[in-house]
């Protein structure tokens, strides 16, 4: 998959690469990665956007560093090295949210520090950034980030809309609507993710 992605990244327009990240190799719906934050903090659009942007920042910046030093790191310590790099950028993201957006930081709780063990990030480093030049690695990180943000925001929209009748605090559904409280609970997260996975698989099979 990594070799195929290299060819796409270096020789095909960015829009095609974006399709790869958002649809063909979507990290959540196609690769089933990063499900912990996807299930835990997508009860509102604001939280979804917060975790999506924080994860994307860490993925893009750490992929840049991993690609730059890929020939200097011995294979025996590559995972430990990747983890230290990821942890450094997670700390930056966590402190930035705490300083600039304390409400979002409090809502996300421990899930920002847990980006350190997000399978999406370590997986892209192991499969792509550690084997490819900077430009290709950056494009791969950006399109995968777009795929992750798209997924969590879509789930956040569905859960917040059905769970409270509003999006970003703006009331969308009228007084006639009775909120589905289950949608903002853990059960609603599993239900939304399951329906999303089923829909993606159905559309993929139909297109094929």
UniProtKB/TrEMBL annotation:
It is a multi-pass membrane protein. This is Electron transport complex, RnfABCDGE type, E subunit. The keyword Chloroplast does not apply. Pfam families: Rnf-Nqr. Its main location: membrane. It is found in: Endomembrane system. It comes from Vecturithrix granuli. InterPro entries: NqrDE/RnfAE (IPR003667). GO terms for cellular component: endomembrane system; plasma membrane. The chain crosses the membrane at residues 49-69, 81-101, 137-159, 179-200. Keywords: Membrane, Translocase, Transmembrane, Transmembrane helix, Transport.
